[in-house]
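Before drawing any conclusions, I looked closely at one protein, both as residues and as discrete backbone shape codes, quoted below without any editing:
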Amino acid sequence: MSDTLRTTRLALHPIGMRDRHALLRHWTGPVVRRHLFDGASISPVQVTEIIETSERDFATEGYGLWALRPLPRGWRAAEPGPGAPLIGVAGLRGHEGPFDRGVDVEILYSLEPDRWGQGLAAEASRAVLDYAFGVVGLRRVTAEIDPGSAVSAEVAASLGMRPWRSGADGPDGAAYYAADRSGWLGSRRGIDAVP
């Protein structure tokens, strides 16, 4: 089983210490930080801890976080070009689910703001969900959507994720979406993954 994923436009590699500086730059950008960390600034130590947690999750659970890098345009390369920038992150992490339902597996993503509006979040997330359901065999994947993040709700809906109940569910007003394995595999959704 390979933990490296490819779509028509992206290479997704499990994050590692080689990505530490790029992740710190990405996650401390004010717009990304506002959406991913509720505006809180994260330190280099926290980035290292996130990487270590992801590496441990890949080893024990079969999933974690992937660094997103663009593939060269116009041809199907096996790898991004030399010096390809980190343009975002997508992946899965365990977290305490809403409604006292225990631990869930949550999908999350972040993109550099200059990459917004290009369909890359949905493209990367489809590859991650395909991996979650088809390779790891997860039963359900959830998404926590912050209040006022209509674009994230649209991405979740485009992936076939559905609200768990109407209205804001979380203590901070977050809405929760979910996709299940049988629905995902049964839909035979076309994905952007490249064999």
